[in-house]
């Protein structure tokens, strides 16, 4: 039962312990499955069923050998089976596979701020900042974000001019508003625009 792949019986591990190849064997299918009267569980499309003679040489364990883990030579490729819930959990958590439907979709991560979204849209490797002491990084991220793919370098220069003009207007407004107070408003307080 299960997917067909070459099993290296010398490299079958359960919970990090190598199992004796001499005591491992393929599990024989139940007659009702051979006749097609009983449906095979979806988990068997991703592994094979093995039988293992335990150390007491009397009891047998039914194992599920994960195909992907076994072929990538992991040290926990065999799982003892008593139901299929833990096998399904393994496929979902480790391999991102839902046995019933195929691959699970990648769930999008909710961004922590709009600035994170803007930096990803811009395609920049680092997140732009909107804090005054990192204003130049923010400007670069903003220009990247506003620029559409394939835009001309002239358009980038226009945007840079617009940003500088707005910054100058802000600085003039702050300077005129700060003339009356003793502390004033300094470039050090607000950073460079």
Automatic annotation (TrEMBL):
Residues 170-193 are annotated as: Disordered. It comes from the Eukaryota. This is BED-type domain-containing protein. The lineage of its organism: Eukaryota, Fungi, Dikarya, Ascomycota, Pezizomycotina.
